[in-house]
């Protein structure tokens, strides 16, 4: 895929700013480390302009009917699906994930547009029966206002639509800041919305200096809600700084997902889904498995199958046919995997598969799919998010004890269990301190369900009608009437 050397990436009030002659940032292909294009490096000025445009546009956009807003979202959904293959290729080129996963992500991203197009005309209010005869009590849902959206590089397409589709459906306007590593998918989504007929100023895009853009959003009173997906550290910063103007927040932060495989599990299913969870997007998924607990009665069979299959995963440029493991996003990501591996090995873990960088033909940050055994609870890999293809496996014998271990973390995003017993599935799901539990399932993120963490994994939900509620204020109107 060949792009122009400079790509316009700042979109304010319906106009693309020319990147030529501006300060720029290079976007690299993480598989080859070759530059793909340069995008604008915006900051405070552009963000202020974008917020001003979103504030002006809010008046008309919020005044439109849900049905009017949904027409544009339906159109955008259609355009995105029609172009899914090309958008997938762009995504793989800037992010590294295998093309099949990238096209899948684009289709998933389009699904958020469809779901919220459907929801746009269903923001029901309430009529509360009053205890006083001469009163009538109403609840009217109204859009929050201008939304500041900050998105990560691991899902450059779906994390955007998951935030902006419900915001737009609710009647909010948006200033979007994508991750500097992956601005190209964001640009394509904004172009789609433009083509679908989005009025000027409703969606604005600013690429560039993360801190300057973020701080400008935080300092500006007009931005009423910050929606963010990324690290817990940045999430906490946004939460602290949002206090100044008491902004609403929706945060999707880190996780440390356990997978628990019980003795009554279907072993083949558990192995293939554990692998899918861990190695999808090269382990760079906030809900991907970080640690695996296998019942001791099946650990031999489980480990043997897991190791064999992990070793067969094809590594390489995600654009190539059959590749299952692309590159890691950057050098720091690679260093973190190495740090977790070295810490585990020096404390007695055994490498049963992989365990090193991958020396392929490409320059990117490739790492072998790695499985560890003999891991102990105090190792970094058992406590910190690795965000890479490292899979520690530990055995257990007691249900209550493994639930305690699974819950022993400050994170609370996703947890997974494998069991063929309904009572156990229900009992354990109820006891896990996580916002999401997958039972014989590792792909819980769908447009129609509420995705979100508890504890230090975040606040708020994305997806489902719950995801739309984040962008609505419930106005209560109390009316005195002559009775
Ligand atoms: P990761 O470690 O996964 O890259 P980050 O939290 O650093 O997670 O990044 C997620 C998003 O947050 C990206 O768009 C990034 O540019 C943005 N970001 C990082 N630092 C800040 C900041 N201080 N203020 C606002 N946004 C930030």
Summarize the structure.
The chain has 483 residues and is α/β, with parallel strands linked by helices. It contains 14 helices and 21 strands.
Strands ordered across the widest β-sheet: 15-16-17-14-13-18-19
Would you state the CATH class of the largest domain? Alpha Beta
Largest sheet at a glance? 7 strands, mixed
Which oligomerization state do the chains in this entry correspond to?
single chain
What does this structure look like?
This protein has two domains: 6-253 and 457-476, Aldehyde Dehydrogenase, Chain A, domain 1 (3-Layer(aba) Sandwich); 257-446, Aldehyde Dehydrogenase, Chain A, domain 2 (3-Layer(aba) Sandwich). 38% of the residues lie in helices and 21% in strands. It has 14 helices and 21 strands. The strands form five sheets. A seven-stranded mixed sheet has the order 15-16-17-14-13-18-19, sandwiched between helices. Strands 10-9-8-11-12-20 form a six-stranded mixed sheet, with helices on both faces. Strands 1-5-4 form a three-stranded mixed sheet, with no helix packed on it. A hairpin with a 6-residue loop joins β6 and β7. α2 packs across α6 (183-195), α3 packs antiparallel against α6 and α9 (267-279) crosses α10. Adenosine-5'-diphosphate is lined by residues 150-152, 177, 179-180, 210-211, 214, 230-231, 234, 237.
């Amino acid at each position: 895929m060949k792009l122009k050397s400079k790509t316009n990436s700042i979109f304010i009030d319906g106009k693309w700013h020319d990147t030529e002659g501006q300060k720029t940032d290079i976007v690299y292909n993480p598989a080859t480390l070759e530059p793909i294009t340069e995008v604008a490096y915006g900051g405070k000025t552009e963000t202020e302009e974008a917020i001003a445009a979103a504030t002006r546009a809010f008046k008309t956009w919020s005044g439109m009917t849900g049905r009017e807003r949904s027409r544009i979202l339906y159109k955008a959904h259609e355009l995105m699906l029609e172009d899914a293959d090309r958008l997938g290729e762009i995504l793989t080129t800037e992010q590294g994930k295998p093309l099949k996963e990238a096209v899948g992500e684009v289709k998933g991203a389009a699904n958020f547009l469809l779901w919220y197009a459907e929801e746009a005309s269903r923001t029901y209010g309430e009529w509360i029966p009053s205890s006083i005869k001469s009163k009538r009590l109403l609840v009217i849902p109204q859009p929050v206002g201008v939304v500041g959206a900050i998105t990560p590089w691991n899902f450059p397409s779906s994390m955007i639509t998951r935030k902006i589709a419900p915001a737009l459906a609710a009647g909010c306007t948006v200033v979007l800041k994508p991750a500097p590593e992956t601005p190209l998918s964001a640009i394509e989504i904004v172009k789609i919305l433009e083509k679908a007929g989005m009025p000027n100023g409703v969606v604005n895009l600013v690429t560039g200096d993360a801190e300057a853009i973020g701080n400008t959003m935080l300092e500006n009173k007009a931005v009423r809600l910050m929606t963010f997906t990324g690290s817990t550290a940045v999430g906490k910063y946004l939460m602290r700084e949002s206090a100044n103007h008491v902004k609403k927040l929706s945060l999707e932060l880190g996780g440390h997902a356990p997978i628990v495989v019980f003795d009554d599990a279907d072993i083949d299913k558990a192995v293939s889904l554990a692998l899918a969870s861990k190695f999808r997007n090269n382990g760079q998924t906030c809900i991907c498995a970080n640690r695996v607990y296998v019942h001791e009665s099946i650990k031999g069979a489980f480990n043997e199958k897991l190791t064999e299959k992990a070793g067969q995963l094809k590594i390489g440029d995600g654009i190539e046919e059959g590749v299952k493991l692309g590159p890691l996003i950057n050098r720091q990501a690679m260093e973190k995997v190495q740090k977790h591996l070295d810490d585990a090995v020096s404390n007695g873990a055994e490498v049963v598969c992989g365990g090193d960088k991958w020396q392929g033909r490409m320059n990117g940050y490739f790492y072998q799919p790695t499985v560890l055994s003999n891991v102990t609870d105090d190792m970094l890999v058992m406590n910190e998010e690795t965000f890479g293809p490292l899979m520690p496996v530990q055995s257990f014998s007691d249900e209550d004890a493994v639930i305690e271990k699974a819950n022993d973390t400050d994170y609370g995003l996703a947890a997974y269990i494998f069991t063929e017993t309904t009572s156990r599935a229900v009992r354990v799901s109820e006891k896990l301190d996580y916002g999401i539990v997958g039972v014989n399932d590792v792909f819980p993120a769908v447009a129609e369900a509420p995705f979100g963490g508890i504890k230090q994994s975040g606040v708020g939900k994305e997806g489902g009608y719950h995801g739309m509620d984040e962008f609505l204020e419930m106005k209560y109107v109390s009316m005195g009437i002559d009775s």
